[in-house]
Amino acid sequence: MTRYADYDLHLHSQWSYDATAAIRDYFHLGRERGVRALALTDHHLMDGYEELAQVAAEFPDVGYLAGAELTVHTPTGAFDMVCLGLPRQPTPELTSVFDAYRAWQCAYGAAISANLVRLGHNFPDTERMTVLRSYRPPHIIARQGCTHVKNAVLRQALIARGVAPDPEALAAVFRQFRDLPVYPEYDAVLPAVRQAGGVALIA
Hints:
The chain is α/β, with parallel strands linked by helices. 44% of the residues lie in helices and 16% in strands. It is built from 8 helices and 5 strands.
C-alpha cells in the first residue's frame, strides 16, 4: 500500500515563474491523501498568499503555512532558502526584500533577452512575454511583470525559434551569457525573514 507523508512544506504554485499548479489542487490532493498541513513556498515572492488564505478557508481539515523559497547570493554561491511562517502583512523590511526579488525577476529575464539579442537571436522582451503568456495566467503576469521564463519552457521555445538545434547546442549559447544579475544578498534577506517571525531552511 502506498503511504504519503502527512505534511508537505515545499510547494510551488502557478504564482511561481516555473510552476503551473493551482493552489486549490494542492488542497484537494491534501484532503484526498490525509495531509495535515502544507506550505506554499513560491519562488521569490508571496503574491499567492491571498488566494492561499481564501482557498484554505474551504478546506479546514488541511492546515497551511505561508512562506516563500528565497534564493540568496552569498560569498560562496547561491542557496535556495525555504522560508516558512511569514506574515500575511509583510513587515517593512520584508516588503523591501520582496521588492528586490520582484525587480530581480524582471531584470534577470531582461538580461536573458538582451544576451540573446546581442548574440544575434530574435528574442527581445516582447518575444519573452509571448512565451510567458503561453503558460502563465494573465492576472499573475499583471502582478509580476515580464519575468524570466521557466527553464524547460525557455529551452523548448528557443529551440523552436531556431536559436539552437538541440539542448546541448543551446547550452553552449547559454555559456556565452554575461552580466546576469545576482540574487538579492543573504545578509539583507535572512535578517528580514527572522525579524518577521519566519524560519529559514536550506532547501
